Amino acid sequence: MSTVQQRRGFLSLITRCLMSVLGLSLAVPALAYFCGPLWRKPGEEAVGGSLRDVGAIKDLPVGEWRLLSLETVTANGWEKSGARRHSIWVRREAAGDQAISVFSPICPHLGCPINWNEEQAHFLCPCHGGIFNGQGQLLSGPPPRGMDALEFEVRAGRLFVRWQDFKVGVRERVPVKV
Ligand code: FES
After folding, report:
1. What is the domain range of residue 104?
2. Which of 45, 104, 141, 151 could disulfide-link to 162, CB 3.0 to 4.6 Å?
């Protein structure tokens, strides 16, 4: 075999290797996109897991309750549906990303939205007068338990919250699938 033929063979091999790497780099994400829904259970949230970015920690004023919102999307296979917007009560107790509390605003009695009363420094449910303290614990009224805390994480200075519905009207905190 001549030197020229050897060079051609070598260049051809290199080209095939590069094309294979390029093909794989395009195929893997495409396969993950198309096949991902096959492994997802019905009703499970799509894209990015269920922790949602609700904003920068530095934007939360220290010592104040803030009503923020997040959106969830459910998916059955490839079909994404049921985008829902939820409100959440968030408070940062001190500077930095420590001492953060996140509560669902849904009253555990019958599901009315709970409001923060700044003057009285407690949460109040307008429907039947349920009252909760600043830590979400039940003070008085018909709710069978305190407010439902939500799971969260702080990543790179941003707050990520996992929305969860809970069964209302019962003493125990029972997560409900939507
Ligand atoms: S729904 Fe909140 S007290 Fe009844």
Report:
1. 51-176
2. 151
Spatial separation of the C-alpha atoms in residues 118 and 133, rounded to whole Å: 11
Do 60 and 122 reside in the same domain of the chain?
A: yes
Which strands form 151-155's sheet, in the order they lie side by side? 51-56, 158-162, 151-155
Residue 122 lies in a domain: yes
pTM equals 0.71
Residue 125 alpha carbon, nearest atom of ligand 1: 2
Q: How far away, in angstroms, is 124 Cα from ligand 1 center?
A: 9
Based on the fold, state whether residues 28 and 69 are members of the same structural domain. Answer: no
Query: Which residues lie with the beta carbon below 6 Å from any ligand 1 atom?
Result: 107, 109-110, 112, 125, 127-128, 130, 141-143
pLDDT in tens, the chain (178 residues): 666 677 777 778 777 867 776 666 666 555 555 555 555 544 444 433 489 999 999 999 999 999 999 998 876 666 666 688 999 999 999 887 779 999 999 999 999 999 999 999 999 999 999 999 999 999 999 999 999 999 999 999 999 999 999 999 999 999 997 6
